[in-house]
Amino acid sequence: MDAQEHKAIYRRYIELLWIPDRLDEVLASDFIAHDLPPGMPPGREGLKAFRRVVNKAFPDLKVEIVDLIAEGDRVAARLSLTGTHRGEFMGIAATNNQVKTQLFEIVRFSNGKIADRWVMRDRLDELQQLGALPRRL
């Protein structure tokens, strides 16, 4: 597969985040999410479970792909996320606060599917936007 095909599969992956039961279409059977919070099962089932939590907590979540770069078996993306906290998330009751954040994600492909996922995000800023932590520590 070439870089353009990997980018297309990545874009499909982003679309399927709202339909967790269909993520198997783009995730390898031995998929590893290197960023799941504690308590989530490993692999595809963990990502699906986490997406169900996120989708319930932020039902209006919008994800914009700001940058998308592919080389070899990797795709790197910078994503912008905006949503309203309407359900429990990571032990925090709904606040109805608007949350805006960015994350950086790298995925590795194997046999046309995403095999690994690494994410970097500013959880401190997100928790502050939710009101779970003060703006200044």
Description:
- The protein has a single domain, classed as Nuclear Transport Factor 2, Chain: A (Roll), CATH 3.10.450.
- 26% of the residues lie in helices and 36% in strands.
- It contains 3 helices and 5 strands, in the order αβαββββα.
- A hairpin with a 2-residue loop joins strand 2 (62-71) and strand 3.
- The longest helix has 15 residues, at 43-57.
- It is globular.
- The mean pLDDT is 95.
What is the gist of this entry?
The protein is α+β, with helices and mostly antiparallel strands.
Number of domains: 1
Q: Please give the alpha-carbon distance between the first and last residues.
A: 47 Å
**CATH fold call:** Nuclear Transport Factor 2, Chain: A
* Helix proportion: 25-40%
Biggest sheet architecture = 5 strands, mixed
Biggest sheet, spatial arrangement of strands: 1-5-4-3-2
Question: From the coordinates shown, what is the CATH architecture?
Answer: Roll
Strand content: 35-45%
- Give the low-confidence spans: none
Number of helices: 3
Secondary-structure element pattern, one letter each: HEHEEEEH
For the record, what CATH class applies?
A: Alpha Beta
Which word captures the global form? globular
Label the structural class: alpha+beta
Radius of gyration: 15 Å
